[in-house]
Give the backbone structure.
Amino acid sequence: MDKNRSVKLGVSVGYWGFGLTAVDQLDIARTAEDLGYDSVWTAEAYGSDAATVLAWLAAGTTRIKLGSGILQIPARSAAMTAMTAATIDQLSGGRFILGLGSSGPQVSEGWHGVRFAKQLQRTREYVAVVRMALAHQKVEFHGETLELPLPDGPGKVLKLTIRPAQDKIPIYLAVLGPKNVALAGEIADGWLPVFFSPEHTATLRVPLEEGAARAGRSLDDFRICPSVNVMIGDDLGAARDAMRPMLSLYVGGMGSREQNFYNRLVSTYGFEAAAKEVQDLYLAGRKSEAAMALPDELIDAVSIVGPPDHARERIRAFKDAGVDTLIVAPMAMDNETRKQQLRIVAELANEVG
């Protein structure tokens, strides 16, 4: 995590919805590739899946890296994730980055029927099996949450019949909370944080360093790749307002009152009272009020908004925080504006170096 190296750029094309179609996603990916962006990232919730969209983007691009941001751990067995990763890596000529995450308890248990328990151990063992399979080893694993093959049936020890194009597919974890972030520092190649505040880097790095120390490893080659919502324009108020729907959704409504990881995160930034107010309003169905209750200071801390000069300094702050790749998500309603935002970000990042 060298602060002196240039920050790379990625773009998030999310999932279908929010005005994005498959054609839009490919258009954005090709634009980003032409602009020199390093990577394009897809997501999944309970609609379009990330893997199929990445295969679509792989066919329509030639150089840009393809990241899953994320493949949901409860949605696939570890072996299936290894199969998918190897397949996309082959289709793309070695451009795949495997981003993994647990999603949340409402999706895990409500959609996938997988208990949201023992997340640390489950993630640790899941990654171990994925790595084993991708390394073309025979997969035999006896853990607390995973056992392969099952001990009381006809299952046999198998190994992946294909190989990825890369010698080692990078595995990044999308995690929140100190224990989970420490796990990323211990076992992953990178971290995919959301609502990352450069001003709180010292605090956010502590668990990463603890996890790395536990594994006896250096973080020199570890990649921090935050997803950051973007709207650059001379009207600062309008740019901030473009951030409000998505940020209030996560802070207010992404999870239950008792278990909302994003609410907890922004509370640690010093916005505990505001986070509670936004959640109270959102869960009461007063979504517009919840959005307007977001403090400008919170929006500025976790987004890139406003005039170019201000946006340039925010990009510089992310670079100085040791960010490897800034994964931007333009908060625009049409593709032409999204692509224009990508051009502006590329120009400003080039100026920052």
In short: The longest helix spans residues 261-283. The chain has two domains: 8-230+307-352, 234-304.
